[in-house]
């Protein structure tokens, strides 16, 4: 109701025509200036992926590519043959690592989140509030508090320097978020629905498959987007628990661009950086409102 | 007769099992959550009280490591940096976020497009953000070189290599990354403000900027608190952004607590002191989050009492 009232009201349609036009002009100018500031960095880096190296070294990143020297070969080099941390297989290897880490960890943490959220919202038991509290405290726990224990646990399990180890770490860390998301969503499903199903003789799993899952897609999308982008973009765990050829893409980028020594390959590095940004960007554009919803729920609750 | 007895017994067992299913399914999570949240925290805290260096060592040393940590210049610089960075980052992000939200709230065309543009940095990792901005800020590759190339040979823009100014580069990049997030939450708040309130103010003859300043923004102040708390959390945990942007340098001028933790634990073989630094990060988070949690709890109880 409040929203429709607000929509009826046009703040800028007040005052005389001239005042209305100038204020519209100011608003759109500011919006455009900010849009430029936000898009410029990505556009600049994108343009440098096709410029020859001597050109970049001479004039820096902030320059337009020359049509005669433009080339897409730096993309191929970044993907396939660029040397990072001793291995010359380009970004593709680390891309594969990141996918092998992100996809299983996203699926596992989401499945656990769905089940936990279902139990904690629909199968009340004694101290369930405490259980929920402890699980969600994990959302706030800084990674630094878990580094040494994880290093020890991964070592004991023989998962040091493996992608499987990272999947494990991210699944455990992710359960806090997914449980929080799903529990808060399932709370709004009427309890009468569950009661009626139980009277009809449906058990725990049957209610989950027949009632909860069909109602889950909105929160499922939010959770998957949140987990995928979060794990893909994560850096600290990847750097500490893996090394060399087993590292995810974020660590690989720091490995080649952070080291001050050696010859720079700005164009190839720019292409690699764009590649690292693409999966989450794609999900962001495709996921749209679900991305924003996850953001607001994950942040404020 | 005996067969009936057993079948009755199995159904009873089945029923009991069915009753316990939710708790059984929850067990793995419970074990992990308690082990991870409680166990790992206590473990790290215990390490911080020991004399561990390269390897864990159970010798109890009380709060020695904390004293040593606060005695080291690197850590005090890191904490000061966190204060400066956190303050400017939160205020700057709130300011830009509010400005963007108010602009979009003016019934502009292509609203979805503007929102998508302002929010996209949040989808990109801190590593990508930091790397890209380092290239732009660095005098050898970025703005300064471009200005020289355009003929302005005396132009100077080397904040990122300047000890006194490098921290502001981190602040600017941080604001660029997070202001879309503040915009999204504040815009949602603006949309929930009652239009009649604005109309009434307008009939009184107030101008638009004034209405926002005096009427609209003050009514959504709880949203500003919520956004500030989330941003403070980001600031306290900041690590990747600084690593990609400045690696804590030049010198220690942009070092933050999370970088000190990493160095102590994995570069210098000072496990106990690193654990103490990690506990200090947890303390900083608690200082921000506990009062906020208490306040929101108190508020919702008050509202419940009011309605009941």
From TrEMBL, chain A:
**Domain ABC transmembrane type-1: where?**
95-287
Protein location: Cell membrane
**What InterPro entries does its record include?**
MetI-like, MetI-like_sf
Q: How does it sit in the membrane?
A: Multi-pass membrane protein
> What transmembrane ranges does the database entry give?
26-47, 99-118, 130-151, 163-186, 207-229, 268-287
Q: Which Gene3D superfamilies match?
A: MetI-like (1.10.3720.10)
| The name this protein goes by in its record | Carbohydrate ABC transporter permease
- Which organism does this sequence originate in? Meridianimarinicoccus marinus
Automatic annotation (TrEMBL), chain B:
Give the residue spans that cross the bilayer.
Answer: 20-46, 82-104, 116-136, 165-190, 211-236, 242-262, 274-295
Q: How does this protein sit in the membrane?
A: Multi-pass membrane protein
Alphabetically ordered keywords of this record: Cell membrane, Membrane, Transmembrane, Transmembrane helix, Transport
InterPro entries the UniProt entry points to = ABC_transporter_permease, MetI-like, MetI-like_sf
SUPFAM superfamilies referenced in this protein's UniProt entry, alphabetically? MetI-like (SSF161098)
Which segments constitute the ABC transmembrane type-1 domain? 79-291
**Superkingdom, taxonomy of origin:** Bacteria
Q: Where in the cell is it found?
A: Cell membrane
Its family remark reads: Belongs to the binding-protein-dependent transport system permease family.
Name of the protein in its database record:
Sugar ABC transporter permease
């Amino acid at each position: 109701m409040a929203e429709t009232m607000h929509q009826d009201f046009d703040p800028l349609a007040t005052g005389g025509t001239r005042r209305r036009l100038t204020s519209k002009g100011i608003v759109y100018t500011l919006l455009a200036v900010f849009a430029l500031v936000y898009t410029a960095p990505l556009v600049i880096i994108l343009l440098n992926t096709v410029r020859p190296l001597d050109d970049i070294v001479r004039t820096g990143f902030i320059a337009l590519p020359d049509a005669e020297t433009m080339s897409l070969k730096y993309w191929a080099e970044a993907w396939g043959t660029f040397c990072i941390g001793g291995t010359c297989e380009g970004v593709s290897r680390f891309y594969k690592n990141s996918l092998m880490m992100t996809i299983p960890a996203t699926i596992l943490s989401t499945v656990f989140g769905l089940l936990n959220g279902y139990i904690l919202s629909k199968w009340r038991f004694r101290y369930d509030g405490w259980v929920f509290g402890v699980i969600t405290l994990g959302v706030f726990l800084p990674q630094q508090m878990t580094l040494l224990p994880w290093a020890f646990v991964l070592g004991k399990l023989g998962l040091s320097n493996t992608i499987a180890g990272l999947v494990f770490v991210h699944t455990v860390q992710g359960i806090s978020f997914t449980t929080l998301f799903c529990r808060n969503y399932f709370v709004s499903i009427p309890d009468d629905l569950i009661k009626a199903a139980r009277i009809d003789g449906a058990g725990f799993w049957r209610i989950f498959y027949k009632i909860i899952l069909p109602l889950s897609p909105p929160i499922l999308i939010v959770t998957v987007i949140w987990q995928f982008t979060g794990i893909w973009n994560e850096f600290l765990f990847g750097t500490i628990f893996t090394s060399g050829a087993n590292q995810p893409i974020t660590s690989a980028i720091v490995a080649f661009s952070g080291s001050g020594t050696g010859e720079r390959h700005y164009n190839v590095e720019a292409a690699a950086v764009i590649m690292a940004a693409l999966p989450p960007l794609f999900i962001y554009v495709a996921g749209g409102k679900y991305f924003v919803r996850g953001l607001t729920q994950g942040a404020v609750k | 007769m005996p067969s009936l007895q057993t079948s009755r017994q199995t159904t009873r067992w089945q029923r009991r099992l069915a009753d316990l299913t939710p708790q059984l399914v929850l067990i793995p999570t419970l074990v992990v959550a308690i082990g991870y949240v409680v166990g790992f925290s206590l473990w790290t805290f215990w390490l911080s009280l020991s004399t561990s260096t390269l390897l864990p060592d159970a010798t109890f040393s009380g709060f020695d490591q904390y004293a040593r940590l606060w005695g080291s210049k690197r850590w005090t610089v890191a904490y000061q940096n966190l204060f400066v960075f956190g303050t400017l980052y939160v205020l700057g992000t709130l300011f830009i976020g509010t400005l963007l939200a108010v602009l979009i709230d003016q019934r502009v065309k292509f609203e979805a497009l503007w929102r998508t543009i302002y929010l996209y940095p949040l989808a990109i990792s801190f590593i990508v953000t930091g790397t890209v901005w380092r290239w732009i800020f660095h005098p050898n590759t970025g703005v300064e070189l471009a200005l020289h190339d355009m003929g302005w040979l005396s132009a100077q823009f080397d904040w990122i290599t300047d000890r006194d100014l490098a921290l502001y580069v981190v602040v600017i990049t941080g604001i660029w990354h997070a202001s879309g997030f503040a915009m999204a939450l504040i815009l949602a708040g603006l949309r929930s403000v009652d239009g009649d309130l604005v109309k009434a103010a307008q009939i009184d003859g107030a101008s638009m900027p004034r209405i926002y300043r005096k009427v609209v923004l003050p009514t959504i102040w709880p949203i500003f608190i919520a956004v500030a708390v989330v941003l403070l959390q980001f600031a306290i945990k900041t690590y990747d952004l600084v690593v990609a942007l400045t690696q804590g340098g030049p010198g220690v001028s942009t070092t933050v607590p999370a970088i000190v933790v990493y160095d102590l634990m994995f570069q210098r073989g000072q496990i106990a002191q690193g654990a103490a630094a990690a506990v200090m990060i947890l303390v900083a988070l608690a200082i921000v989050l506990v009062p906020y949690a208490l306040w929101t709890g108190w508020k919702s109880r008050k509202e419940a009492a009011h309605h009941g």
